[in-house]
Design goal:
The structure holds two protein chains of two kinds. By secondary structure, chain A is α+β, with helices and mostly antiparallel strands. Chain A starts with a helix and ends with a strand. Helices cover about 80% and strands about 0% of the residues of chain B. The radius of gyration of chain B is 24 Å and the shape is globular. The chains are: A alpha+beta, B mainly alpha. At the A-B interface, helix 8 of A face helix 7 of B.
């Protein structure tokens, strides 16, 4: 009984259970209402941060091949390690996805968004005792944008013409062409500021972050110790954070169940509901930018015909996909690769729904006959093969014959994706709408996996890039989204949630659409009960 | 005596030479096998972001553009000079990478062996002592049912019972350098028990069968007629004469403990050779797969050779060939 109550309490604090639901459940347990009410206030009181302790996370996404060099960081574990010891100039707001000051206090752009001035926070200390100044910022950004850099952030740094220091606390960045999104690009997790840009020793793991590195064994474990002189005393509640690499699903789940770890990422949606029923574990699903899609090549038959593309879009039952493939941990897509997790997205665009009649109408109009081959493999996304078969059944009702071609994982990304005219794929999303569209949907993009090339779309993209008025930008992005939805080559049935699990010992968890485990900030925002 | 030592010495040298030839063949087979897998390290590193140029650049950087035979020969000449090379995916020195991992694997294997070998022999002796009785049946049924279950099943069962329900031992066996010896033992407890359960039955059954075989001999009857206690008959008279097949099966099980732990290491997230191998096969990182494969093969060959030599040493008839 008390376990059940604890679970309810935890759910109220985590916002999983509304006040009314709590009252109803309490009544069902035979509790008098005043007692349930006091339960609620107790829980609310418990949410002042506790200090101290050792927070342990069990994470998938680490390998013996991981490097501590921020330029080479890839996947979840390396990402959260960077969150522990480093800070970026700009952070993403968990509430509205906007750019927020971190190591930079403020910034402004000259009209045309070509020249930007960043004012740095004063008195920020590195773990080695030095003060962070403009020189460190300039060197860091230069290291990631140089000609011969191997940095994974090069793609977003390519547009930078020059980076200069102006005094100790000011940095001026000049771009090759205007980009109103520069602050967002600087939120990229690779761009943590290192002393002298990390040129002396890129893998030293010395930064300004809330935890200093204590020990690190790639692919096994990372331990960070609280950094006493961190500039923000409101974060970093525990003495130590420990990240354990638990790539095996069952190992991660059993560690969470037995309370050996306080939080785990990447729960399997199939078993997440069962995990959520345990008294000491709660499942936290966060809707983000990641989505599953079926790209069609708009330059190849039969997909060059927009009626056929529309037929295919109307023939997919998005709700059923979310229910059956994501087990409810996700939301429906609208054939637009952008959703509410991005800033400047218009949520008022009409949702496309499953309509076999409309699908049949467009299919007939397209004049196509015969089977349409869809290439799938479970490496595209978990459950891609099932999704293909489900789609086949749904489309059958509209008289469309989809032939599902099941392929092995090996070589899928090299030989099938971006090569075959119709296949399954996934995307993790990008920092901004501009970035996502530029990488996947602008005409010259390497990864234009729908081969959808529209000069009008490209020019709108350019226009929005240099528009500093947020209202006007939002209108431009709305127009582009509608173009994508009604003419584009991507069928986007679902956005998959990040599914994390936390134990009742971990408090103060918030959902951040930018990434799993509060966008990695779980280590600095949460505390132990 | 002199001739006898020579024959044994000659045998060892001959077996060692044969072992080297075997290793060469094995390295060729591993290389050919990884070549046959679809995709290569460049494609698997780049994944979804594999544009043709990127794949080409990476292959060029890794020297994958050279013909397979040439790559194999240059790898071979390096390894003959004691250089295992560097990993394609991380650029780390393979020797360094394997050092720690091999230590961990050997630690787990030897801990399991220290428990499993005496226990198996002891259970075998008990089974013979109470042969065909209830104790014998219980020992046989329980060990054989353990061996009939795949090791991952036993592993998950133990995790569920011991780690999740009872919360006695940790479910994941992460070990690191700053751990004390006691902490390390606690961490490996579950994989160690799993391995013990898996290899117990083999050794126990062989001990039982070998001793029972000897038990029908005339000299055992003599010993029994002398009025010796059953345990003394078995331990002092039957066991020494049955030792040779027992040693063989024990050594083969030791080899299994070292090279067969891949699945157990993955279940318990134990940072050993098995996990290293799986990580790098997934990445098509051929030099690492080659190195790990060769080490596994060498251990297998050496232990097999050891088993044969021990069998000869333990058997006077083989020790003094006519």
């Amino acid at each position: 009984m008390s376990q059940v109550l604890d679970k309810f309490k935890a759910q109220v604090v985590q916002g999983k259970l509304s006040r009314r639901e709590l009252m109803r459940s309490a009544a069902a347990l035979g509790l008098a209402l005043p007692i349930a009410g006091s339960l609620l206030s107790q829980s609310a009181m418990a949410s002042t941060p506790n200090k101290g302790g050792r927070m342990i996370l069990g994470l998938a996404g680490g390998a013996t091949t991981d490097s501590l060099d921020p330029a080479l960081a890839l996947a979840q574990v390396a990402f959260i390690i960077l969150k522990a010891w480093g800070n970026t100039l700009v952070a993403v707001s968990p509430t509205d996805g906007s750019a927020q000051p971190e190591l930079a206090e403020s910034w402004e752009a000259q009209p045309g968004a070509k020249i930007w001035t960043f004012q740095l926070r004063k008195g920020v200390a590195f773990h080695n005792g030095q003060e962070m100044t403009s020189n460190d910022v300039v060197k860091t950004l230069q290291r990631h944008s140089g000609e011969d850099t191997k940095s994974a952030a090069l793609g977003i740094m390519r547009g930078i013409e020059s980076i200069k220091a102006d005094g100790k606390y000011k940095v001026i960045i000049e771009l090759k062409s205007g980009n109103a999104d520069l602050p967002y690009l600087l939120t990229d997790y690779h761009l943590v500021i290192q002393p002298n840009g990390g040129l002396d020793n890129p893998t030293a793991a010395i930064g300004t972050g809330p935890y200093e590195m204590e020990s690190n064994e790639p692919g096994v474990r990372f331990v960070g110790k609280k950094f006493k002189d961190h500039f923000n005393s409101a974060i970093g509640h525990v003495d130590y954070v420990e990240l354990r690499v638990l790539n095996d699903q069952t190992a991660r789940m059993s560690a969470l169940r037995s309370g050996q770890i306080h939080a785990a990422n990447l729960l399997d949606p199939k078993t997440a509901k069962l995990m959520d029923r345990l008294p000491n574990v709660s499942v936290q699903n966060t809707s983000g930018k990641a989505h599953y899609l079926f790209p069609m090549h708009c330059d190849k038959a039969p997909f060059e015909n927009n009626d056929l593309r529309l037929a295919m879009k109307y023939a997919i039952n998005r709700e059923e996909m979310v229910e059956r493939i994501l087990h409810g941990y996700g939301s429906v897509g609208n054939d637009i690769p952008i959703n509410g997790a991005y800033s400047l997205f218009s949520t008022d665009i009409e949702q496309r729904s499953y309509d076999p009649d409309k699908a049949a109408f467009h299919y007939k109009k397209s004049g196509h006959s015969g089977a349409i081959q869809l290439d799938v493999s479970d490496v595209a996304f978990p459950g891609a093969v099932d999704a293909g078969l489900l789609y086949q059944q749904q489309a059958k009702k509209a008289g469309i014959d989809i032939k599902v071609n099941r392929l092995p994982s090996d070589g899928y990304w090299s030989n099938v994706w971006n090569k075959k005219p119709f296949c399954a794929s996934y995307t993790g999303g990008r920092a901004t709408q501009d970035q996502h569209y530029s990488v996947f949907y602008s005409s010259p993009a390497d990864w234009n996996d729908t081969k959808w090339r529209r000069p009008k779309f490209d020019s709108l993209l350019k226009q929005a890039q240099i528009e500093l008025d947020q209202g006007k930008r939002k209108a431009l992005y709305r127009e582009m989204a509608i173009m994508m939805r009604d003419d584009g080559g991507a069928i986007i049935p679902m956005f998959n949630d990040y599914v994390d699990g936390i134990t009742s010992k971990l408090q103060g968890f918030t959902k951040d659409p930018a990434g799993s485990l509060s966008n990695g900030n779980v280590i600095s925002q949460c505390w132990l009960a | 005596m002199a001739t006898q030592h020579q024959t044994l010495g000659q045998l060892v040298v001959r077996r060692l030479l044969l072992g080297v030839v075997l290793l060469l063949l094995i390295s060729l087979i591993i290389f050919a096998g990884t070549e046959l897998l679809p995709g290569d390290v460049a494609q698997s590193i780049l994944g979804q972001s594999a544009t043709p140029e990127a794949v080409r650049n990476l292959r060029l950087e890794m020297g994958l553009d050279r013909p397979a035979a040439e790559r194999y020969l240059s790898w071979l000449s390096n390894i003959l000079q004691g250089d295992l090379g560097t990993s394609l995916s991380s650029g780390r020195d393979i020797g360094d990478m394997i050092g720690d991992r091999l230590g961990n694997t050997l630690f787990l294997a030897s801990s399991a062996a220290i428990i499993a070998v005496p226990l198996a022999v002891f259970l075998g002796l008990i089974a013979v002592l109470h042969r065909n009785g209830i104790v014998d049946k219980i020992i046989s049924i329980s060990t054989i049912s353990m061996i009939s279950l795949p090791e991952f099943f036993i592993g998950y069962l133990l995790i569920l019972l011991v780690a999740v329900q009872l919360n006695w031992l940790p479910s994941s066996s992460i070990v690191y350098n700053s751990m004390s010896f006691a902490e390390r033992l606690q961490a490996i407890a579950l994989p160690c028990i799993t391995l013990t359960l898996v290899c117990l039955a083999h050794m126990m059954r062989m001990t039982r069968a070998a001793i029972l075989n000897v038990m029908s001999s005339a000299y055992i009857e003599t010993a029994q007629l002398k009025g010796l206690s059953p345990f003394r008959v078995i331990f002092h008279h039957a066991f020494p004469n049955a030792i040779s097949p027992i040693i063989t099966v024990i050594v083969l099980n030791l080899a299994y403990l070292v090279v067969g732990v891949v699945v157990v290491e993955i279940i318990y997230v134990y940072p050993g050779m098995g996990q290293l191998l799986v990580d790098h096969v997934t990445n098509r990182d051929v030099p690492v797969v080659q190195a790990v494969g060769l080490i596994f093969a060498a251990i297998y060959i050496l232990l097999n050779m050891f088993a044969d030599i021990m069998a000869i040493v333990a058997n006077p008839r083989l020790r003094h060939p006519k």
